[in-house]
Amino acid sequence: MKQSLTEKMYLAFRFEFEHGGHIITAVASGMTGKEEVLVDGERVSGKRNFGLSGRHPFVLNGTEYEVRFDVGGFLLSQIDCTLSADGQVIETKTRSATVNKKTFIRNLIVFFLIGMGFGYLAATIALDFMG
């Protein structure tokens, strides 16, 4: 599945699963921390999560489902999404924002510049505060 420009900008990951006649869509953003799960286009779970993993349990037609996000690393922006039904893993899909070397280098430079900007801002505020 190819990422849209919006998904690339916000490091958004979209996973689609088919199970029990339903389309289960899981969306996670690496920039905003927003995670949500939709069943046939209706939101069944959502939260903000800046951790390395997130769980979204929900019940559909008497079946207990769980969507789990696992981040493989911040630098590589790799995320695994696992769909389970009644405790049994149905499918796991993996996506990465760094499909090629050019994207990886671009992301590295962007994050470096953002870190430099925040560091400069923090140092400026600290120096102004101290005198």
List keywords for this structure.
131 residues; alpha+beta; Lipocalin; 4-stranded antiparallel β-sheet; 2 helices; elongated; membrane
Roughly how many Å apart are the termini?
54 Å
**CATH architecture identity of the largest domain:** Beta Barrel
- CATH topology of the largest domain, by name, is Lipocalin
What amount of the residues lies in strands? Answer: over 45%
Mean pLDDT: 85
How many beta-strand elements?
Answer: 8
Taken from the alpha-carbon principal axes, the silhouette is elongated
Number of helices: 2
Biggest pleated-sheet summary? 4 strands, antiparallel
Q: Identify the CATH class of the largest domain.
A: Mainly Beta
Transmembrane segments: 104-127
Keywords: Membrane, Transmembrane, Transmembrane helix
Description:
The protein folds into 2 domains: 5-98, Lipocalin; 100-131. 27% of the residues lie in helices and 50% in strands. The chain is of the alpha+beta class and 131 residues long. It has helices spanning 5-9, 101-130; strands spanning 12-19, 22-29, 34-39, 42-48, 53-60, 63-73, 78-85, 88-96. The longest helix has 30 residues, at 101-130. The chain crosses the membrane at residues 104-127. Keywords: Membrane, Transmembrane, Transmembrane helix.
Write the SSE topology:
Elements: H1 5-9, E1 12-19, E2 22-29, E3 34-39, E4 42-48, E5 53-60, E6 63-73, E7 78-85, E8 88-96, H2 101-130
Antiparallel strand pairs: 1-2, 2-3, 3-4, 5-6, 6-7, 7-8
Transmembrane segments: 104-127
Keywords: Membrane, Transmembrane, Transmembrane helix
